[in-house]
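Why does residue order matter? Because the sequence determines the fold. Keep that principle in mind as you read this record.
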Amino acid sequence: MNTSDYSITQLPNHPIHEPMSTTLTGMKRVLIGAIIAIAGLVAVAAPAAASPFSDDLAARRARVMERLGPDAMLILWSAPVARYSNDVDYEFRQDSNLYYLTGVTQPDTMLVLMPGNEGRREILFIKGRNLEQEHWTGRVLGTDEAKAQTGIETVLPNTQFEPFVTAMLSRRGFGAIGATQAARWFDALAAGRGRVALLLDPNRGIDDPLTPPLEFARKIRDRFVGFAVADVTRLLIEQRLIKTPYERSVLAKSFEITNDAQLAGMRATHPGAFEYEVKAAIEAVHQSRGAAPGYPSIVGSGPNATILHYPEGGRQMKAGELLLVDAAASLDYLTGDVTRTYPVSGTFSPVQRDIYELVLQAQLEGIKTAKPGVALIDIHRKTVEVIKTGLLKLGLITDTTGDQYRMWYTHGASHYIGIDVHDVGDNGHPLEPGMAFTIEPGIYIRQIVLDSLPKTPANLALIEKVQPAVTKYADIGVRIEDSFLLDESGLRNLSTALPKTISDVEAVMRRRPATAAR
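Structure:
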C-alpha cells in the first residue's frame, strides 16, 4: 500500500452517529480512525495487474493522440455527482468519453493527454484517498491501482490539476513533467499554434448555460495566450464508432445476459401479472450476472405498448393484450438495445398478427440492407417503404407518397450502440466493420393521433377513411428490435437467440411455467 495515497480528515456529523456527548464522540472518532488506519495498512487489496482492458485503453489513447498531433493538449473531466434526495446521491455513472479512454468509474477525475511530450504524455488526476470518507462511501483507487487499471504511468492527486494546467499554459515545468518533457508544447505556445482540445458540445445554443468545459475554456482564454480552443467531439465520435476487438467481445458477453433476461421476462408474463413483475424478472438476471440495466427498462402492456419510452410499470396485464419489452444489460459500460413484443396470453390475435407481421417484414428487409457502405438512414428508408405499403393494405393510411405513415411509425429504425445505448455517431455515415447498431421498426396505433389532427378538409377526409382501421387496431403497439455488429465476416445479430417469428414466440410462451401461463 502507498500510504501517501491517504489522508484522514474529520467529516461533518452524519445522522447515523449523533453524539451522546462531546467526550464520547471524540473517543469514537479516535477509535474509528485508528481501526481504519490499521485496516488500511494490512487489508488493502493488491493493485490489479495489467489486463487486456488496460492494453486496449492504452491503444485507444494512442490513436487519439496520433490524430490530435503534437501541438495539442486534450483535457477531459469525469461526470458530476447527481443528487437524488437530500443527502443521498444517485449511483454514479461516469462520463462516457472519460471512461472510453481511462476505464475509471469514480468521480473527481481528470485526464490530460499531451501528444508532443517526450515522455509522460498521459496524466491522470484522481481523488486522494481518505480513510474516514471511505468508511462511509467505499474505497477509491489508489495511485498504484489507477496505474495498473488504466495503463497510465503518471497519476497525480486531483488537487494538482489546476496548478498543473497553469504551469503548462505558462510554459513552466511541473514536477516530473519538466521543460524538456513538454518542450514541443511550450514551443507551440510560443509560436501561437497550441491547441487546447475540449469536449465543447457543439449542439448548445448561444443562450444555453455554459458547460464546465466551456466555462474552463473561457477562463483560460482570459488568462493565457498562445493557443486556440479546439473541439474534440468529432474526433472521439469517429473513434468510438469503430469498436475494438476487446469492445466487441464484451458487447457479445453483455448479450448473453440480455438474451437470458428477456427470456426470463417472457416466462414471468401472464394475465393478472403486473408490468413491474416482468421488469423485476429481467433485471434480476442482469444483477445476478454482474451487469446492470443499460437504460431504464421499458415494460408496457396494452395501451402502454404504444408509448415509446414508457417510464412506469404499475399496470396489471390482461388476457388478450400485447406486452412490449425494451430492455438490455450493460456489462462493463457496454450495452445493446433489444425489444420484443409478445402476447400476454401466449397467442397472437388476428389483428395483432397483422401489425406484428408487418413490423417483422420491415425489420427483415432492413437487415438485408445493412451492409458495408450503407448508412443507418438507408436502413430506415427501407423499413419505411415496407411499412407504407403494409399500412395502406391495412387501411391505416390512404397514400404512400407522403408522410401519413408517420402517424403510426414515429421513430427512426436504427441507432448506434456501445458505451451509450444511443451511442454517438452520424446516421448518414457509411457502415464499416466494427460498427454496432440496432434495427427496430415499430407501429403504434393511438386514437389520439387522429383526434389531434387539425380539422382541415383534407384531414377530415383522411380521418373518415382510416377511422375503421384505427378502431380495429387501437392500442396495439409493436416494436421488434435487434442489435447487430458488423465485422469483417459480415453482419452478426447479437440477439439472435431470442424468438422473433410468431411461431417461435408462441412456442416459447407455451413453455412458460404453469403458474405463469394461467
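Confidence is low (pLDDT under 50) at residues 6-48.
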